Amino acid sequence: MTDIDAWVWWLIAAAALGIPLVITAMPEFGMLSVGAVAGAVTAGLGGGIVPQVLVFAVVSCALIVVVRPIAARHRAGQPQLATGIDALKGKQAVVIERVDHRGGRIKLGGEIWSARTLDGDAVFEPEQQVDVVDIEGATAIVM
Length: 143
Prior knowledge:
5 strands
């Protein structure tokens, strides 16, 4: 039986670290996996166990320290896509029938919606533009 070279063990470790990356979607596992590949390259080039472990640690830590904050900023900067009734909030509509705190009708997104005012004293007449602030059931809340 032959001994398995150190670089093979590093590649096995890289693959093993890739599994939780796929399951949990935690990018840190991917960064550790890349560090393990760097350890495999070091072993393949003839480096001893100490340089292999040092390369693994330095590459993994560098990726976590440098890439993780960049990825977090990128993820935080992406706008969320609003769908369904959330996509209607903030849109403008045209009053079709007088809208007050008891009800009325508006044209929103090409469709007729029942509506009522957010403020109990507000009244909107036909042809006025209103802003949709919320949707409650099938009723748009406007101001």
